[in-house]
Amino acid sequence: MSGTVSDGPGSGGDLLGVRDGALLVVGDVVTDVIARHQGPLASGTDTAAAVRTVPGGAGANVACWAAHRGCAEVRLLGRVGEDAAAWHERELTASGVLPCLVVDPQAPTGTVICLVDTGAAAERTFLTDSGASLLLDPGDWSDALLDGVAWLHLSGYLLFSEPSRALVRVALTSARARGVPVSLDPASAGFLVELGIDRFLASVEGVDVLLPSRDEACLLTGLPDAEDAAAKLSRHVPLVVAKQGSDGALVARSGAVSAHVPAVPATPRDTTGAGDAFTGAFLAALLTGAGPEEAAREGCRAGASAVELVGGRPPTPG
């Protein structure tokens, strides 16, 4: 492949039906520092903001939303530093997730500064220090992690460092050997540009479900139209669900868009983690027997809930 998805046929396989087992998410666990400000930042001086520190990370957020939306058992493999390991474990457990956190003896827990403009779109900009989160490597993987697992989800952030890219290859091979379906969320259009489209597409060979944003789908295909991009990606990956924000979601299989799911109206406060909420709810619905279109509807509902909250996680029970 050279730069974009080819037009050749994709693999098939029916992913539907109730699946008896856990969802295993492998991905990033980070600390989010969210600064909500009004209007443009004032260069060289102060800008008033409401600042909160909350648990985050795309992989961890997906796991929490999947548990929140009814997935019976959700496990998470991630890597954190000693500085915040106990806090993150408590927060994940409180959200109904079974954490399997590797504690890095040297690197600190990843930190993301989320700058959120409190205007109508509540758009956010990330400053990312991945820290320990992208130091997961094949040594952190064990085939036993898939015992009792019905679905494996990989955070796309894992593809943005060589150690965690190697882990992705090992996890994919292990899942394929067991017949466990695998989904992946590309995670970041900015990092995709740095990684390179060819390397990304080679890395996702064998993935069953791809959940890109509109920008990511267009970037991966070189096509300006999201519907065309989703259709083209579905020749490479059996099922593509392209998240469109306020325009809902597209479901594509076998080179064609099969459904356009409308968004659920919401009043945004913070769009951080909205895509993660969609993915978590989508996977929870699939695992309880929903088809892709209905699962995408659940994803849109969760995304609408997420943008009305501050931070990327659902409220914890109690």
UniProtKB/TrEMBL annotation:
A Pfam family it matches: PfkB
Domain Carbohydrate kinase PfkB: 23-316
Membrane-crossing residue ranges in chain numbering: none
Keywords: Kinase, Transferase
Top-rank lineage group of the source organism: Bacteria
UniProt xrefs under PROSITE patterns: PFKB_KINASES_2
Alphabetical list of InterPro entries matching this protein: Carboh/pur_kinase_PfkB_CS, PfkB_dom, Ribokinase-like
Keyword field contains Kinase: yes
GO MF terms, alphabetically ordered: kinase activity
Entry protein name: Sugar kinase
Organism: Streptomyces ferrugineus
Lineage: Bacteria, Bacillati, Actinomycetota, Actinomycetes, Kitasatosporales
